[in-house]
């Protein structure tokens, strides 16, 4: 699995930390920016990452802004994206198990690295249950949105 990364200025510092973490874990990643703390617009990075995740089979994305909220709102406009902004391990885990989320939105501001590291690990390592009822619900959502 490859992780496609994106952040705005408020998520830049955490993105750099996440890259080091993924490196240590031997998880492949691609960084689509931003590459500095200079002010940027989060939808630009959300759309880039969302489109790539939908097109590159088997990939998933991590998007980071100040809260994770704006990134996830934008990413979910793209057909086939199921993005979650999680701040707790349970919702991160169940978003994979039930919703087969393919993008994780993270909070770059006021976040503890220890908590964030665990959250990423739970989200990456939880498989989709594949249950029929969950597939049916996902199919209903995936018919909506703008094509990548
Ligand atoms: C940028 O200041 C901030 O609004 C953005 O990073 C994000 O938190 C939006 O949801």
From TrEMBL:
Cited InterPro entries: RpiB, RpiB_LacA_LacB, RpiB_LacA_LacB_sf
Database matches in Pfam families: LacAB_rpiB
Protein keywords: Isomerase
Keyword Kinase: no
Superkingdom field: Archaea
GO MF annotations in UniProt: ribose-5-phosphate isomerase activity
Keyword Zinc: no
Gene3D superfamilies (alphabetical): Sugar-phosphate isomerase, RpiB/LacA/LacB (3.40.1400.10)
Family matches, as PANTHER family: DNA DAMAGE-REPAIR_TOLERATION PROTEIN DRT102, RIBOSE-5-PHOSPHATE ISOMERASE B
Protein known as: Ribose 5-phosphate isomerase B
């Amino acid at each position: 699995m490859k992780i496609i990364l994106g952040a705005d200025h408020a998520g830049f510092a955490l993105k750099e930390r996440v890259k080091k973490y993924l490196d240590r874990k031997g998880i492949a990643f691609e960084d689509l920016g931003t590459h500095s703390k200079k002010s940027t617009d989060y939808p630009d990075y959300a759309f880039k990452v969302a489109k790539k995740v939908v097109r590159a089979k088997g990939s998933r994305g991590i998007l980071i802004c100040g809260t994770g909220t704006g990134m996830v709102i934008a990413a979910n406009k793209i057909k086939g994206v199921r993005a979650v902004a999680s701040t707790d391990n349970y919702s991160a885990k169940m978003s994979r198990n039930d919703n087969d989320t393919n993008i994780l939105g993270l909070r770059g501001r006021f976040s503890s690295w220890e908590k964030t590291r665990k959250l990423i690990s739970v989200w990456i390592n939880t498989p989709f249950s594949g249950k029929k009822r969950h597939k049916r619900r996902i199919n209903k959502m995936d018919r909506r949105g703008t094509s990548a």
